[in-house]
Specification:
Blueprint: H1 4-15, E1 20-21, H2 25-32, E2 38-44, H3 48-61, E3 70-75, H4 80-89, E4 99-104, E5 107-112, H5 114-117, H6 122-136
Parallel strand pairs: 1-3, 2-3
Antiparallel strand pairs: 2-4, 4-5
Pfam families: Disulph_isomer
InterPro entries: BrxB/BrxA
Family: Belongs to the bacilliredoxin family.
Length: 138
């Protein structure tokens, strides 16, 4: 578990662009069981690849005409119960942080795991997400 003071700026980076931080299993269940439209779920992390690639990539991806209806996030290593619940919706993918998942009408349609994020530029991640948004968020 990381100190809140350390991770708060990392959480705010997503909150400032419209993400709702889900800090309980109940909130995750409530939001993820709303199966209308599209939802982007980001499992946030303190790791360097989240800071250098994932969060900036997500931010850039939202500068797009097509984008998800709902933006939600959990923070691995901080909101452990909420993260565990969110990962249930990500099955059959193994736990990965950071990771970015797009749902359409409650169905997981696009997933970026840590190994898709690490070593890729924020622009590459954004381009990947923009392509998915164009396919599923119209």
């Amino acid at each position: 578990m990381y100190p809140i003071e350390l991770v708060r700026p990392m959480s705010q980076e997503l909150e400032q662009i419209g993400f709702e931080s889900l800090q309980s299993a109940e909130k995750v269940t409530e939001r993820m069981n709303d199966k209308t439209g599209t939802t982007l779920l980001v499992v946030n992390s303190v790791c360097g690849c989240a800071a250098a690639y994932a969060r900036p990539g997500v931010r850039i991806s939202l500068e797009n005409e097509a984008k998800p209806d709902k933006l939600v996030t959990v923070f691995a290593g901080v909101d452990t119960v909420a993260t565990a619940k969110a990962r249930e919706f990500l099955l059959p993918y193994p736990p990965s942080s950071p990771c970015i998942a797009l749902f359409k009408d409650g169905r997981l349609v696009h997933m970026l795991e840590r190994h898709h994020i690490e070593g890729r530029s924020a622009q590459m991640i954004a381009d990947n997400l923009k392509t998915a948004f164009s396919m599923y968020c119209n």
